[in-house]
Amino acid sequence: MRADAAAAREREAEARARRGVWLRDEEPGVTSIGGRLDVLDGRIVDERLHQISERLKARYPGLDHSARRAKALSLAMNPELVLTILEADQPALGLRRPGAAGAAWRGRGAAFPGRRPAQAVP
């Protein structure tokens, strides 16, 4: 079996051209989301949703893993809210939001492993 490099590139380009995210209200109070992402982006989204959902276990004990991932997706669209929740649930981390009195903040993404962490506040 031979691989046709040109055909493979063409199939990949066609697949990339179909990337997108779609939302549809299917039931009262619920919106379905579907999408097509680059492979690496899809893996990043999956991992981040997992990480955020694990941190939400104590705050939302009645939600199963899938429901927490759905909550994590909406929270990920509002990083300031994620930080507020993490501060409230884990005050020992010593993180403060930008603009908080005496905040020692360096960069975004402190709540997400793999990004530059915020500095701890003494």
**What's the total number of strands?**
2
Q: Biggest sheet: strands side by side, in what order?
A: 1-2
Number of helices: 4
Describe the sheet with the most strands: 2 strands, antiparallel
Element order: H for helix, E for strand: HEEHHH
Radius of gyration: 19 Å
Helix content: 40-55%
Q: What structural class do you assign from the helix and strand content? A: alpha+beta
C-alpha end-to-end distance = 63 Å
Can you offer a commentary on this structure?
It contains four helices and two strands, in the order H-E-E-H-H-H. By secondary structure, the chain is an alpha+beta fold. The protein has a domain at 11-93. It has a two-stranded antiparallel ribbon. Strand 1 (20-27) and strand 2 form a beta hairpin. The chain starts with a helix and ends in a 33-residue tail after the last helix. The relative contact order is 0.09. Residues 101-122 have low confidence and may be disordered.
What's the quick description here?
This is DUF222 domain-containing protein. The protein has helices at 5-17, 39-55, 65-76, 79-89, and strands at 20-27, 30-36. The protein has a two-stranded antiparallel sheet with strand order 1-2.
